[in-house]
Amino acid sequence: MSKLVPGQRLHQRCVCCCWNKLCNFNYCRIFIFLVVTSIAFIFFLAVYTCKPMGHSCFGLTDGSPVALSYYDAFLMGKVFKHNFSEAVLNKERRLNLEGEDVLIYLHIQKTGGATFGRHLVHNLDVDFPCECKAHIKKCVCVTRNSRRWLFSRHATGWMCGLHADWTELTDCVDKWFKRNDVKSRKHRVYHYITFLRDPVKRFLSEWQHVQRGATWKAARLHCNGRDATMEEVPFCFTGVDWSGVPFDEFMSCKHNLAFNRMTRMMANLSKVNCYNRTGLTDDVVNEILLKSAKENLEACAFFGLVEEQQKTQFLFEKTMGLKFIDNFRQKIKTHVSRLEITEEMTKKVVEKNILDIELYQYAKDLFLQRVAYMERKLGYTVDEYFNHIRDADDAGDDDTEEVDVDEYGDEDDTDDDIDDDGVDIYPGKNTTAGGEIPNSSTVRLNSSR
Ligand SMILES: *[C@@H]1O[C@H](CO)[C@@H](O)[C@H](O)[C@H]1NC(C)=O
Ligand SMILES: *[C@@H]1O[C@H](CO)[C@@H](O)[C@H](O)[C@H]1NC(C)=O
Ligand SMILES: *[C@@H]1O[C@H](CO)[C@@H](O)[C@H](O)[C@H]1NC(C)=O
Ligand SMILES: *[C@@H]1O[C@H](CO)[C@@H](O)[C@H](O)[C@H]1NC(C)=O
Ligand SMILES: *[C@@H]1O[C@H](CO)[C@@H](O)[C@H](O)[C@H]1NC(C)=O
Questions:
Q1: Which pLDDT tens digit goes with each residue over 292-335?
Q2: Residue 344 and residue 341: Cα distance in Å, rounded?
Q3: What spans are recorded as compositionally biased (Acidic residues) (predicted)?
């Protein structure tokens, strides 16, 4: 190994970037600095100013060095600005829960939805809070006139199927209320609320959850009047579950419902013939699903983002005219944040969840624009709200009680319970009768899928 004196090394490095006469250390540094900053500047300028045309920016052809897509923007943590109408931005409403209004919670797996679900039953400042008992997952959420005001796993159980999606809920909720609501209420207005999460984190979180034994195999996947069949959606595993599944195996199962789960669960699946896509190309199906999911998300009364707990709380309170007792907390650590994820894994996940990434990018822009709209309308910011305004409103009851919603559930913010298939929250199907977990095939046969 030959030792170089500093001057020599500099000289050698300089040759590649400067012409000989200017080959002096400082020129060289300035030159490199200028090149790097201008490239970075152009890149960021492009992200901020360009609107996507199809999948790539400026409609540039492949191979262009600055062709930016939704996915590049996603990976950079940026969003494209959409032009939303006022009606889409402003969802403010006065709920009358003692009247016709009912909250319907559409809970997508691994979106941090369990925590929000617990906030709704334990932490909402309403005249008729839910009555919850220790160790029982379901609470009783009724108004003074015995009207049910919340439909969710924590309030009613999975009455429309385990983690029922938009298609299942819109088909089932009204029928269920007609049978189970007090007779005095003849008509109801359903306000759908849901949560979304960074699709890569969500997907990895689902993989981790499946590794720990979750299957959601009791999900009915009901659509157009029947449950999906085994042929349409086969299980990815044989035997009881898919515990310990390695990443590559999880990625290689074509029927894995984890792929683009958020888009599928928000879309009207009737539009693509449910789970039988015979005669439809993937491109056509994807386009329809994404469009439908965006429309349904826009039409929801509210949606939150797990990455934005404070803004979510602000927007929910101001949109619904309801208030939480205790403030939401942003959890720092999740199972996923402790995982070692390589760049290659992320790339694979992105490729397989393209619809969810488009949906999420769209949703994030909509969410942030809604927050900004609400701030303008109210004349104060989210920070100001939490720093003085909200507390001032509470001046009467100064010893604000700490409500720890996670005390009522598991430790991890984004973790649904492993026993999601349990009978006490999902009375429709007897999947865990006698404490025995049946084989996947037995469940499918029993549920005539
Ligand atoms: C956004 O949409 C509105 C009407 O929907 C239109 O008047 C306005 O020009 C649009 N703005 C941009 C920047 O496209
Ligand atoms: C899907 O539907 C087609 C007819 O539309 C039918 O021939 C085919 O058997 C169905 N596939 C499955 C898996 O059910
Ligand atoms: C469960 O599946 C295994 C093989 O997959 C089979 O041998 C066993 O009999 C099944 N048990 C029940 C209860 O069906
Ligand atoms: C879902 O789409 C189908 C087919 O376009 C339509 O008939 C149905 O009304 C939609 N469902 C809802 C709840 O809007
Ligand atoms: C569920 O299983 C238990 C125990 O086998 C049985 O007593 C109960 O009647 C079953 N419930 C339904 C709805 O099938």
A1: 999 999 999 999 999 999 999 999 999 999 999 989 887 765 66
A2: 8
A3: 394-423
